[in-house]
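Run folding on both entries below.
>entry_1
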Amino acid sequence: MSSDLSRQPAPLPRQLTYPEAEWRALARFWYPIAYADELDAGKPLARTLLDEPLIAYRTTGRRIVVARDLCIHRGVPLHLGWQEGDELVCAYHGFRYGADGRCTAIPAQPDLPVPKKLCLSVVASVEHLGLVWVCLDPAPGAAPALPDWPQLSAPAYRMMHAEPQEWACTPGRQLENFIDVAHFSWIHTGTFGNRDQPEVPPYEVERTATGFRVDYRYLASNPASAKTASSTGEVIQRRMLYDLHLPFACRLDIDYGDGRHHCVFDLPTPVSRRRSRIFHFVARNFDPHIPAEEILAFELKVLAEDKPMVESQRPEDLPLDLSEEFHIRCDRFSAAFRGALRELGLGPDYTK
């Protein structure tokens, strides 16, 4: 990140639920706020990131614009208004704003010039991997540090997603659950968990330039309802390749060993300190005849098994001080994850 101390820091949200130091550490990173196709209907979309209300829309030229959701004339959220062409219209007094954020018209005084300072607070955004990514406080001049997951653009793979969910949890707790290999045989017995395989064999955690990789093998249950592999057996060997991109994005590549790959992506976005929007979607290169709805129904069932566990964890924040919870050998992936979050500057504030 840039060390330019002369630039103005990003303004803090009005309804701040984070300690300021923690918010500023998190605001440097990029997070998805929507699937890109959610903006194809030509309607503005209201989202919240790190307590900051945002509005996002797509212009007629396919450009995506994201701004703080506020008309600065009288403080009314712009999501109460509408989109006309490339402009947002405020519902209160009809002020219009262009894609660059500048006000283009004040209906109450059409013959007077529009003040140059009358403009929206546009935030950094980019469309990548089928998602709309936003950073509230990017490093000046730096390219976005975004995951590189080729399956999401390869012609052989089909990307499928359902509506994002909101959970009453921190993104750290939710993502740690996604990378936790010891809970499969206990929580996921209704989907792929094999109660006869509770032992977790030793595995290695590889540090990468952007996070971690883990190669883990699991003898999973394979019910007919799984829709994840074309197999009639009761159990199936899963080679599970994790690629965690810090702070809160992970791809799980389930490799069946014969060229078939079922990839699961988990990206929890921090809405507020203890609320996350979960972008959980899949891409696979086999069985194109199976409807996306059936594949996603299975993935949503897996999520539903996880949700009550994650939302009930205490403390709600992920303890980055490893002495605050007990750890066993199979927790080495999550322990590495916690250590990396500490290195990113979350520190003790993230545990309070």
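>entry_2
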Amino acid sequence: KTQKNYLIKERNISSEKILLVGSPKHDNFFDSKNHELKERKTILLAPRPITEISGEDNTELHIRYEKILKKIYQIIKNNDNVDIIIKLHPIQLGHNEELVEFFKTLDSKMHVDLFSSVKDIMKQSDAVISISPENWDLSTIVLESQILEKPTLNIFLNKKTYEFQCINDNSVLSMTDDSDIEHGINEILFNENTINCLKDNAKKHLKSYLVNHGTASQKFANILNS
């Protein structure tokens, strides 16, 4: 509905030309929620690579990126009850290759996943950390983590941020890389009030952000057949 309103108001598109379908890609996410309680916590770190076409790719951004990754890694390693899973976006970008090499130097035993199902990996996790190097966009994993009811921390590498609906709806915890990251990680892993609040807000956010939960494929098929 948000996208429809934008197209009508900002692009003068007729409402009759806009069909609210939802996201067929995410239909099976709505049937994949896993609430198994475990003594050990697992956090999914999903760093989105820097894209050259953004015009923001520079040495300073790469340095800040590696600095925040080191900080996150050290915070998690210092906690004996927390495991980490690294999931990179399966896209052919130079920075993705840099990230693979960076994690190898950080910890030679660390497994960095590229091609496994995001849904399956996220089901093994208790919380998610997403990193947004360019502040004009959020990774799709932020949406997917909310569907699967995983408390999420999104870290921006620039203080200038845009008005994202999920952040305005307080369904995602948002910080910049110079914030108290350890506090943010502890909040999404151990603070039950924060965790429950994020989950409740995510449900409300998804109602307004995404239509046809779990039935978007059928809705789209019906439109094509009509």
